[in-house]
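Session log. Operator J.P. requested a structure for one protein chain; no other inputs attached. Running the standard single-chain path with token output.
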Amino acid sequence: MPTRRDEARALFRNAILDAAEAVIADRGFHAARIHDISERARIAVGTVYNHFRTKEDVLRALLEERSEGLRRELMPVPGEPESFEKKLAVRLSRVLAYVDRHRSFFLVALEHGLFGAASATAEATLHGKPVRQMASVKGAIAALIQEGIAAGALVDEDPARLTRFLTGTMKGFILGSLQAGLPSIQGETPVIVDLFLHGAARSPARRKR
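Structure written below.
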């Protein structure tokens, strides 16, 4: 069982990462300082260094933990609907709710390769070492696509291509929602699911809506 000391360390660590998320998104990684993070977290600078040796270590931990949280939202849970369309809607809704809670994180993670390639600047910041959990997010999306193919809900197309399509659709809607200042990215779930599964062509069913 975790001791009180373990619980205290976890509490401080979470406070540091929450503060780092806000500071890095607001000022950019290179302008952000450990002092800014400690001030935002309302803890001593030394406490930050007790948990992380460098600012780069803080960033990597933030990216790993938030990406892992995003991956969990994509995983199956008991009681999910049987139909793939409803299952896709449920999981994407959870993902977008997570992004709503961590909007600052998404912008930082995007630069570091969450839904695509990392920028050259981001790669240099982390010395070219990939963020492992980001690959697991992409793997979870790929697994979801495989479920759709196996259920006969998706065309028997190259799964990697379908994964890129869904990932690109999610990325586009999330970025667009952030830029438009929409209060709820999660509210875009039905549109994303509809466009991904049925396209944008005007059909008789849609004309009746």
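Operator note: DSSP finds eleven helices and no strands in the chain.
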